[in-house]
Each structure stands twice: as structure tokens, then as C-alpha cells.
Design goal:
The complex is a heterotrimer of chains A (about 100), B (about 475) and C (about 500). With about 100 residues, chain A is of the alpha+beta class. Chain A has helices at about 5-15, 20-40, 75, and strands at about 60-65, 85, 85-90. In chain A, strands 2-3 form a two-stranded antiparallel sheet. Chain B has 3 domains: about 5-300, no CATH class; about 310-420, no CATH class; about 425-485, Arc Repressor Mutant, subunit A (Orthogonal Bundle). Chain B has 15 helices and 17 strands. In chain B, the strands form 4 sheets. In chain B, strands 1, 2, 7, 8, 11, 12, 13, 14 and 15 form a 9-stranded mixed β-sheet that branches. In chain B, strands 6-5-16 form a 3-stranded antiparallel β-sheet, with no helix packed on it. The relative contact order of chain B is 0.10. Chain C has one domain (about 5-265, about 400-495): Amidase signature (AS) domain (Amidase signature (AS) enzymes, Alpha-Beta Complex), CATH 3.90.1300. In chain C, about 35% of the residues lie in helices and about 10% in strands. Chain C has helices spanning about 10-15, 25-35, 50-65, 105-110, 160-170, 185-190, 225-235, 280-295, 310-325, 345-355, 355-370, 375-395, 420-425, 435-440, 465-480, and strands at about 45, 75-80, 115-120, 175-180, 195, 215-220, 265-270, 300, 400-405, 440-450, 455-460. In chain C, α5 packs parallel to α6 (about 185-190). Chain C is globular and about 65 Å long. Chain C starts with 8 loop residues before the first helix and ends in a 15-residue tail after the last helix. Classes of the chains: A alpha+beta (about 100), B alpha+beta (about 475), C alpha/beta (about 500). β1 of chain A pairs parallel with β3 of chain B, so a sheet runs across the interface.
Chain lengths: ~100, ~475, ~500
């Protein structure tokens, strides 16, 4: 499998990373190098092997349904690049 | 039968609809944080640092929400999965702070089920449930407060939603409406969602395609922003015609997300095509699989209330009600309970049903009041109906008493007593009135006896009038017949 | 007075208790060292005023006889731990200026135990790197010099390069680190320090800027095994705010240190004898085996057959998780924002200008391997191999109590050396990544110097939750190795 510049462009778009053509051209071979490296895995026989997504050796903890957080708008907005009237502000979204 | 076919230029078309109902789970706090989910707070106040997706913040699952999910699964008569997995659905949007929504993909908490919906013509239809999963709600973007900016409020961000996905079994807007109504009713019975569409605690996405009957499924469009049953009906109507027009003009329907515009009454494409979604679901590494025990599921099963269909059938059997009356009475749990109290006090189930449905609900509707705010409580209405049953007052007088009760909140007996409305059943007193009427109307008596039968009603009216409506109509009829013959 | 910066944590605690010096004096000595050694670029932010305030309070407690377990111990905090009211950047431009309104669980525990914070330590951007050359705030320089070529600057390892350099150069008595694929152990090896990554779930991840959630684990750097144990005693423990945090009881790790290795079986995984491994490292490994044998251990050959696939597995799973974990850096709620015509512009420009090259590369790889059509071939496949790798360890641990391997396939290399070839850079972690994938505890302990005069480390790997055996074996190596060499650059050198 080899990524074309168009493929890289699509991935950059999905990742919300702006890249010009030159960057795409430079990145494609690097990504292909890494993909070639990870494709070694196809050699491994994984029939009848269950995927392992987490090695935490415990069960999922559950918390009581109590309100013990929030009500901290100043902390929530403290680092916002732009906030107005208690909201985060962003360029207008047109749907 | 509401299976509606639409006539196009090239023949008849059938619509195929599947619904995704998003229902906010009744709880105190969010799915993965301890912030409140109360509606209507000042912007960004019900937001924890977890909800705002600050660096290093981690989710911890709300036990009550899990139990609500199990309860809903049981209520939908669906498979509750003892093993489910939270996965990340990745996309960028300002009201999605993490850049992903924690949802469930391959392993939802609830699997397949079936519900029976009640159609306007009195028939029923089974609609399949594909699955139900738990997920985080997004925040809210406000677009109309600033000319060039959108404002983001994360109060709703991270609240727990249940997404209930139907099979593509729905074939008309009526069926879609009946389905949503039924889901709403079941969730409200269970106490897992308040079903309040105005506040957005229940919303639906409509997947819709058209085909010639018997053909394969066509390409579907997904319609979002459908926030009421009325909007859903309108959106389906518009979208079906749009798709038929495209196909009949030789075009192809695009698989896309469309937005319902409730002002222009049309659907339009939501996101540009090159931005096609690729959600890249994968198991959330901050969470472990959710494993449920049989004990927990059994414990929740034991708390299930009587569900709408069960209640409806019981009302039909126990109270000999017809399907329509039973459906109206069970539509809301408090209404059904109200009715049962009325019956208990009054005795007559059918008469009680008439009074609850026609008089009480009618009056409340006119007054713009909910049943919970009714000035007349169930015991009071039961007493009123009991007075009809035991002949203390007539049905006609009862309506006046009821009007007074709605005004004053007084008991029926008190009003009957105060206003002296007790029905006259003393035959001697009624005979005296009849005699007087006969003496005062010699011409009509003669005419009646001469064969003009229709005048009987005139005499009844005169007697009732003279008794101020209190004479027992049955006795009046009997005595009049004797005296006039 | 002795050089306070050359103390261990244990000896410093003794000195404080015995009033040989005050916490303020101890902290001041390290502040001076930190300032002297700014050329190493180990700190992104120095916080002497915070450290001194904490030291002052510690001195009061010493006077009252209410001293805390680590009272007055000056440490550095990897700048991946969110610290309340102190800028936290993950060494990324995108978080420049970000001031958390909260304290990470682990850093909070350390302050609660009396540690003083000298500053926030440099690292690879978002902990992605093995040489600390991807930081937005510049490279960190290893205080050790290649004796055959003393004019070039070497890398301190990564991603916790600021931590390793600062501890090695005696700028702090200990430091926190995080380890996702070797980010504590490899830099420890490159700087002649001790570094331990405990079992996944031992330390809370709450408040640590996430890289790859299923792998990230906090740990400690110090100059002795005992000091690492002291730090772990405070850092570990269940946290209800982290769903992957373990309820496993935390023992007193310092109690595990003493005792020889009689009756202990130490496994030597044959697959770690990789092609092209320098002979010196091979020799050091053999030396380690001999030391352990001398202490009574039995050396057992074991096989971890899927070792070869650990790196490719890691380079699917870690980028996949990182691509999602880093989606929150969008310029809306915190951090840098680059304005654009519209929202998409804002996102794309903010992220393109906010993230460095290596981070962008990993986001791209991660996005790709999770995308429709490739998920099964890459991500699911990697998760399956991850299971096989984990099972390899489980099988090995049926025969042995711990494993001994080299920590890294080379000693520290020159800055810039592997920069243009990502895969070559990734190979640095060949011995540390398998442990991370299996979530097992691993520790690097300095074993000696190579012919260039650079430190080499040995790695001890243990069973899940058995840090005690890891520490015990490491302590035996430490005793036998008697590693007393010091780096050429020391914070104290310009002082007085």
C-alpha cells in the first residue's frame, strides 16, 4: 500500500492540518516509509486472537450520580483565546 | 393501513424510513462527569473541566445512566448486552470539545428489540429496534448573537443520550409519528427520558429513501434538526418528493446529511461533499469494557413499571374499554393512574372513561393546564361520577357541577348540597309537578292524546324546567306516560 | 558543608531530619544549580519562587516535628503534568501560555508529600520522541560528553529528556517522567540515572496531557533505586478520577530493596539479541547476568517470540490514540489560535502552526490507520498482536520472576543524528516498547560506561504489580555496578 499525494491530502484534511503541496510531497514518502515498517505485522498469524485494547487489569469503575463538579465557568473560560458573555466565541459557523 | 404509496410520473413510490431517536437520560449529572444536566442554566456553568476537554481530563462513567440504559432496553423488550464498549467517534466541531464523541459502536449496551405502534386508523404495526446505545451529547452553538461569530455553550456537552435506532420498517409519516410517540411514551413510563421535545431532550434523525414497491432499498439521506413530530412529518413529506423528483428526472439521490429548515420548510445539504465523514471509531482507551451482571439486570427488571401496551390491554379487559379509549387513557402514566382512581371511587368504568376523556381532558386542554395541575383531583371526579351512578344527580346537572368544581376546586357533594341540586326521585313530588303541567297545557294534552306523539318531549321539557332540572328523568318519563295515556 | 546537590533523596531527608541543613538551603542550592545549567535547556519554566515558598513551609514542619514523607525534596516536574497556575505546555507551541486551573493527581501527591517544585521540565513535544529534539522550546542537552568527541552535544534521550538531564546534572534530586514506549527508561539509560515506569494503572493519568492513553504511565527519575522507590511510594495509588487507575494496594516499595536474589529466576529473552547491537552493550548485558548470578539468582533463557513486532504494533496504536487525543487542541477553548477566514481555516491553521513536524506525522499516521477501510488491517491487527506480545510475557513469567535486558540499543547519540529518519529514531525504543504494550513495570538502572565514557543502562522488567521484584533486582545491579561516574556538566560546577 502506498499513499499518493491525494491520499495524504485527504488525511491532512481529516486531521485538520493545513498543508501546502510541497509539504504534502515531502510527507508522502515519509509516511509511506512508516507504513511500510508497520506493515510487517501482516506476517503475524492472528487467526483466533482477540484484539486487546487495554491492559488495565481491572473492571470499569462506575461513579454515583451526584452533582459534584461544574459551576466553575471562570476556570472553564480562563484560557479561552476568545470568550464573550460567558460563551466561547468562534468564527460564524454556517450550516 | 397507513402504508402510503406516492404517485409519481413514473408510477407509485414507496418510502423507506428508519429513525434514530436521541433521548436525554434522566439523571442528576452527566454521562462521564459530575456536572449538572439541568436545563436552562447560564452558559458554560454546568461544565466541568472534563466536559470542557481540558488537557489530561478523563471520563468516569455514571452508574445511574447505565441502569437507565438497561431499564430502557428492558422496556423496549430488547436484548440487554452484558458486554458493551465505549468508542470514540472522531470529528471536529466547536461544540464537541474533545474532538470526539464518546459513544458506542460495535458493542452497544442494548441490541435488537421490537415495539408495537398504534396507528391513527386503530391498527397496530411492529417496528424493529436495531440497537440502543449510550453516548455523550454535544454542546450548543448559538449563531444569532453576533454578526460574524458563533457562540459556544458547553452546558449540554457530555449529558447522557440514548440513541435508539430503528430498522427501516417505517413506510409513512404517520408510522414515523406513531413510532416516535410510542418510544416517547415508553421512555416516560420508564422514567428514563422526559420526552420533552421543546427543550431538546428528545430529538430524531430521519433516514429516508424511496423505491418502487418490491425493489431494493434506494440511497438514503439523513435528515437532522427534526425537533418535533410536526417537523418530522413535514420533513418526510418534503424529502420524499425531493427524492422522487430527482430520480424521475434521471438523477441520483446522494447519500448525505441534510438539515431540516423549519422556516423555509425544506431540507438542504448540511456539509460539503469533500468533507465526507470518516468517524474513525475505536474503543476509548480511557475506559474499559462495560460488563453487566445478571444480578444487576434482574434487579432492574424487578423495578419495571407496567408498560403502555400491557396497561392498554389490561384496561380493555378489566374495564371493558374499547381500544381507542384505552389508548387515550394510557398515553400518560399519570392519566392512567388518575383514571384508575376515578373508577375505584365511581364504580362505573365506561362512564368514568367518558368523564376523564371528554370532560376533564377537554376542560384542561381548554384551560391550557396539565393533568398534574388539574383543580379537580381524581377522588373528586370519582365522587362526581358516583353521584351520577347512584342517581343523586343527572348527567346534565353533573356537567354544571363539574364546571363549578373546575372553578372552585370544591367537592361535588358540597356543590350539590349548597346549590340544592340533588335529584328529585320522590314520585309524589314529581306527580304534583306533572299534574300542574297538564292543567296548564290543555291544548297540547288534547293534541297528544289525539295522536301527536311528538309532543311527549314538550311535556318532559316542561316538567324538567319546573323542577329546575332536578327531577329524575327516568321517573318523569314513566309517570308522564301513565298520566297522559 | 557537603554539596547539597549531590545528595540522594534518602540522604537529603536524613539531613533535613537531623537539621544538618534546611529545606530552604537545599532548595536554594538546587535553584543555583538550575540557573547555572541553563545551557542544558532542561527546564521550560523555572519556578524558584514556588519552590522556596514550599521549602519555607517544609522547614516549619521540620521544626514542628510534623514533616511529610518527602518534605523539602526539590524536584522537577515534566511539563506534561498539569500544574495549577503554572504554565503547562507539553513542549508544544499549541499549548504555549496555557495555565491549568487544576493540578494533576500525581503532581498534587508529590506537593502534598512535601516536594518543592523547581520548574517544569522540557520534553519531546507531547512526549513524542526519543531524543528530546521535537520540543518547541528547543533541544535538551545531555550533561554527559562523548570522551572521543567532547565538543558535540548529545541527546538526553526522550521523551523525558529534561527530567533525565536535570537529575543527571544534579539540578534536582528527582523528577517525574512519563513513559509511553520507553520515555523514562531510555533517557535514564542515556544519562546514567535510574528511571522506573510502574505497572499501567499504578499512577493516575488524571491531569497528565495524554499522548496514548492505553500506554501512558507516570514514573520517577532519581539517582538511586531507593530514591525511585521513595518517589513511587508517593506517586502511586488509586484515583477515582481515572477509570484505568488500579485499586491494587501500594506497598512500601523501599522495603523491597534489601535482600539478595537467592531462589529468584531471571529470564534473558533471546529475541533481544538484535542484529547490529553494539558489542559493548552485549557485554554489559552479560555483566549484568553475572552480577545477578553472584547474588544468587538463576539465569534462565526465555523466549518472547513476538518481540520483533512490538515496534510496528506500537507505531499503529500510539499514533491512533494520539490522533484522537490531540483533536481537542483546536484553538477554541485554550492554547494558541491562528485566526482564519472561517472555522475550518481556524482549525487547520491553528493545528498546522501549533504542532511540530513529528506530532503532525503521528497524527497523520494515526488518522490514516483508523480511517474507513484500513481500521481492520492496521488497528485491529495491531491490537491482536498486542495480545500476543502480552501473552509472550505471561508465558515467560510462568518460568521467571523478572527479565533482564539492555535498556537501549546504543548509548546517547549526537543531537540531529537520527532526525531525518523516523524509523531509525523509533528503533531506540526496541527494548522498552514491548513492556509498555504489555503494561508491565520496567526500570533502567545505570550499569557502567562504554568506551566513549557514556553511561549504559540495564532494564529490569517485572510481572504486573510486582515493582517490588523489579526494584529488588535493580538494587542488586546498582550495588554490584557501583556506578559513581558523574556527567561532565553539573549544575554545581559554576557555583561558589
Amino acid at each position: 500500500m502506498s499513499l499518493t499525494r491525494d491520499d495524504v491530502k485527504k488525511v491532512a484534511r481529516l486531521s485538520r492540518l493545513r498543508m501546502d503541496d510541497q509539504q504534502l510531497d515531502e510527507l508522502a514518502p515519509k509516511l509511506n516509509g512508516i507504513l511500510g515498517f508497520i506493515e510487517q505485522l501482516s506476517e503475524v498469524d492472528t487467526d483466533n486472537v482477540e484484539p486487546l485494547s487495554n491492559v488495565a487489569r481491572s473492571t470499569l469503575p462506575l461513579r454515583d450520580d451526584v452533582i459534584n463538579d461544574g459551576e466553575c465557568r471562570d476556570a472553564v473560560l480562563a484560557n479561552a483565546p476568545e470568550s464573550e458573555e460567558g460563551f466561547f466565541a468562534v468564527p460564524k459557523v454556517v450550516e | 393501513m397507513t402504508h402510503a404509496l406516492i404517485k409519481g410520473e413514473t408510477g407509485e413510490w414507496e418510502m423507506v424510513i428508519g429513525l434514530e431517536v436521541h433521548a436525554q437520560v434522566i439523571a442528576n449529572s452527566k454521562l462521564f462527569s459530575g456536572a449538572s444536566i439541568e436545563f436552562g442554566a447560564a452558559p458554560n456553568t454546568h461544565v466541568s473541566l472534563v466536559d470542557a476537554a481540558m488537557p489530561g481530563m478523563l471520563p468516569v462513567l455514571n452508574q445511574h445512566v447505565v441502569e437507565q440504559g438497561i431499564k430502557t432496553g428492558l422496556g423496549l423488550k430488547a436484548q440487554v448486552n452484558k458486554y458493551s464498549v465505549f468508542a470514540r467517534k472522531n470529528y471536529f466541531y466547536p461544540d464537541l470539545p474533545q474532538g470526539y464523541q464518546i459513544s458506542q459502536s460495535d458493542h452497544p449496551i442494548v441490541g435488537e428489540g421490537i415495539i408495537e405502534v398504534d396507528l391513527p386508523d386503530g391498527s397496530t404495526k411492529e417496528i424493529g429496534i436495531t440497537r440502543m446505545h449510550l453516548e455523550q451529547d454535544a454542546g450548543k452553538s448559538v449563531h444569532d448573537m453576533h454578526p460574524s461569530k458563533s457562540y459556544v455553550d458547553l452546558n449540554r456537552s457530555g449529558s447522557a443520550l440514548m440513541e435508539i435506532v430503528s430498522e427501516p420498517d417505517i413506510r409513512s409519516a404517520d408510522e414515523a409519528a406513531a413510532y416516535v410517540n410510542k418510544i416517547r411514551m415508553i421512555l416516560r413510563y420508564l422514567g428514563t427520558c422526559d420526552g420533552n421535545m421543546d427543550e431538546g431532550s428528545m430529538r430524531a434523525d430521519v433516514n429516508i429513501s424511496v423505491r418502487k414497491p418490491g425493489d431494493e432499498y434506494g440511497t438514503r439521506a439523513e435528515i437532522k434538526n427534526v425537533n418535533s413530530i410536526k417537523a418530522m412529518t413535514q420533513a418526510i413529506g418534503f424529502e420524499v418528493n425531493r427524492q422522487i423528483d430527482i430520480i424521475e428526472d434521471g438523477g441520483e439521490v446522494d447519500q448525505e446529511t441534510r438539515l431540516w429548515d423549519p422556516v423555509k420548510l425544506e431540507t438542504r445539504a448540511l456539509r460539503s461533499k469533500e468533507d465526507a465523514h470518516d468517524y474513525r471509531y475505536f474503543p476509548d482507551p480511557d475506559l474499559l469494557p462495560l460488563e453487566l451482571t445478571d444480578e444487576l439486570i434482574e434487579r432492574i427488571k424487578a423495578t419495571l413499571p407496567e408498560l403502555p401496551d400491557e396497561k392498554k390491554h389490561r384496561f380493555m379487559n378489566e374495564f371493558s374499554l374499547n381500544a381507542y379509549d384505552a389508548s387515550v387513557l394510557i398515553a400518560e402514566q399519570n392519566r392512567a393512574a388518575f383514571y384508575e382512581t376515578v373508577v375505584k371511587t365511581a364504580g362505573d368504568a365506561k362512564l368514568s372513561a367518558n368523564w376523564v376523556i371528554n370532560e376533564l381532558l377537554g376542560a384542561l386542554n381548554k384551560a391550557g393546564k396539565d393533568l398534574d395541575d388539574s383543580p379537580v383531583i381524581a377522588e373528586q371526579l370519582g365522587q362526581l361520577v358516583a353521584r351520577i351512578v347512584d342517581n343523586t344527580i343527572s348527567g346534565k346537572i353533573a356537567k354544571d357541577v363539574f364546571a363549578d368544581m373546575m372553578e372552585s376546586g370544591k367537592d361535588a357533594d358540597l356543590i350539590i348540597d349548597e346549590k340544592g341540586l340533588k335529584q328529585v326521585t320522590d314520585t309524589g313530588a314529581i306527580e304534583a309537578i306533572i299534574d300542574e303541567v297538564i292543567v296548564n297545557n290543555p291544548d297540547n294534552v288534547a293534541a297528544y292524546r289525539g295522536g301527536k306523539d311528538k309532543l311527549f318531549g314538550f311535556f318532559v321539557g316542561q316538567v324538567m324546567k319546573a323542577s329546575q332540572g332536578k327531577a329524575n328523568p327516568t321517573i318523569v318519563n314513566e309517570l308522564l306516560k301513565n298520566k297522559l295515556s | 558543608m557537603t554539596d547539597l546537590t549531590n545528595l540522594t533523596i534518602a540522604s537529603a531527608l536524613n539531613g533535613l531530619k537531623n537539621k544538618e541543613f534546611s529545606a530552604t538551603e537545599l532548595t536554594n542550592a538546587h535553584i543555583t544549580a538550575m540557573e547555572n545549567a541553563r545551557d542544558l535547556n532542561a527546564f521550560i519554566v523555572e519556578t524558584p519562587e514556588i519552590a522556596l515558598k514550599q521549602a519555607e513551609v517544609a522547614d516549619v514542619r521540620y521544626a514542628n516535628g510534623t514533616a511529610l514523607p518527602l518534605d523539602g525534596v526539590p524536584i522537577g516536574m515534566k511539563d506534561l503534568f498539569c500544574t495549577k497556575d503554572t504554565q503547562t505546555t507539553a513542549a508544544s507551541h499549541i499549548l504555549e501560555g496555557f495555565v491549568p486551573q487544576y493540578e494533576s493527581t500525581v503532581s498534587g501527591k508529590l506537593w502534598d508529600a512535601g516536594c518543592t517544585m523547581l520548574g517544569k521540565l522540557n520534553l519531546d513535544e507531547f512526549a513524542m520522541g526519543s531524543a528530546n529534539t521535537t520540543s518547541h522550546f528547543g533541544n535538551v542537552i545531555n550533561p554527559w560528553k562523548d570522551q572521543t568527541n567532547p565538543n558535540i552535544d548529545l541527546v538526553p534521550g526522550g521523551s523525558s529528556g529534561g527530567s533525565s538531564a536535570a537529575v543527571a546534572a544534579r539540578l534536582c534530586l528527582g523528577a517525574t517522567g512519563t513513559d509511553t514506549g520507553g520515555s523514562i527508561r531510555q533517557p535514564a539509560a542515556f544519562t546514567g540515572t535510574c528511571g522506573i515506569k510502574p505497572t499501567y494503572g499504578r499512577c493516575s493519568r488524571w491531569g497528565i496531557v495524554a499522548f496514548a492513553s492505553s500506554l501512558d504511565q507516570a514514573g520517577a527519575f532519581a539517582r538511586t533505586v531507593e530514591d525511585c522507590a521513595l518517589m513511587l511510594n508517593t506517586m502511586c495509588g488509586h484515583d477515582a478520577k481515572d477509570s484505568t487507575s488500579s485499586k491494587q494496594e501500594v506497598p512500601d516499595f523501599t522495603k523491597a530493596l534489601e535482600g539478595d536474589l537467592k531462589g529468584k529466576k531471571i529470564g534473558i529473552p533471546k529475541e533481544y539479541r538484535v542484529d547490529g547491537m553494539p558489542e559493548e552493550i552485549e557485554k554489559m548485558w552479560q555483566q549484568g547476568m553475572d552480577w545477578l548470578k553472584d547474588q544468587g539468582a538463576e539465569i534462565v533463557d526465555v523466549s518472547l517470540p513476538h518481540t520483533k513486532y512490538a515496534l510496528p504494533t506500537y507505531y499503529i496504536i500510539a499514533p491512533a490514540e494520539c490522533s484522537s487525543n490531540l483533536a481537542r487542541y483546536d484553538g477554541i477553548r485554550y492554547g494558541q489560535r491562528v485566526e482564519g477566514e472561517d472555522l475550518t481555516d481556524l482549525y487547520e491553521l491553528t493545528r498546522a502552526q501549533g504542532f511540530g513536524e513529528e506530532v503532525q506525522r503521528r497524527i497523520m499516521i494515526g488518522t490514516y490507520v483508523l480511517s474507513a477501510g484500513y481500521y481492520d488491517a492496521y488497528y485491529i491487527k495491531a491490537q491482536k498482536v498486542r495480545r500476543l506480545i502480552t501473552q509472550d510475557f505471561e508465558n515467560a513469567f510462568e518460568q521467571v520472576d523478572a527479565l533482564l535486558t539492555p535498556t537501549a540499543p546504543s548509548s546517547a547519540f549526537a543531537i540531529g543524528e537520527n532526525d531525518d529518519d523516523p524509523i531509525k529514531m523509533y528503533l531506540n525504543d526496541v527494548f522498552t516498547v514491548p513492556t509498555s504494550l504489555a503494561g508491565l513495570p520496567g526500570m533502567s538502572v545505570p550499569a557502567g560506561l562504554d568506551s566513549k565514557g557514556l553511561p549504559l543502562g540495564l532494564q529490569v522488567i517485572g510481572k504486573a504489580w510486582d515493582e517490588e521484584t523489579v526494584l529488588n533486582v535493580a538494587r542488586n545491579i546498582e550495588r554490584a555496578a557501583n556506578f559513581t561516574a558523574k556527567p561532565q556538566i553539573l549544575g554545581v560546577s559554576k557555583a561558589a
